[in-house]
Amino acid sequence: MKVLQDIWILEKAGIVLFHREFDKSYAPQLFGAMMSALNTFAEQLSDGGLSNFELQNKRFTIIKKQDLLFVANSSKIFKEKKVNKELKKISEKFLKLYSEDLKKYKGQLGHFNEFLKYIEDALEEKTKV
Fold it and tell me: What does the alpha-carbon distance between residue 26 and residue 24 come to, in Å, rounded to a whole number?
């Protein structure tokens, strides 16, 4: 069962390297800047910063690896452990595929768009009515 709806991969500074949105309701770079600011604020309050938060019927889950933030949202019907496991697999796949590219990355938007083909099986699709 696919548990993740939207996913964003961003630098700690807030630049979105990759995103895939279920509803296209967020401006990716604005969302990235907000997540970065929230995480920085949370790190000031406690060690480690944010790991998840909830808004109405969605849960946002955050994993930090190698100065990147991996953010995904899912329905709250799924257990946190399952969502974390899926996001962890995606983060490991991204770092395995692109660790060399990240060293040379100069901020070009769309550079990591092909990553979608590697993770489509983990992302929920919008049903057509």
Answer: 6
DSSP codes joined into one string, 40-89: HHHHHHSTT--SEEEETTEEEEEEEETTEEEEEEEETTS-HHHHHHHHHH
In the block, tokens 């970065």 appear at 36
Residue 74: both structure tokens together: 């899912």
Q: State pTM to two decimals.
A: 0.84
**What's the fold here for domain 4-104?**
Beta-Lactamase (3.30.450)
pLDDT (tens digit, 9 = 90+) per residue, 74-104?
A: 988 999 999 999 999 999 999 999 999 998 8
For 10, the 3-state DSSP assignment is: strand
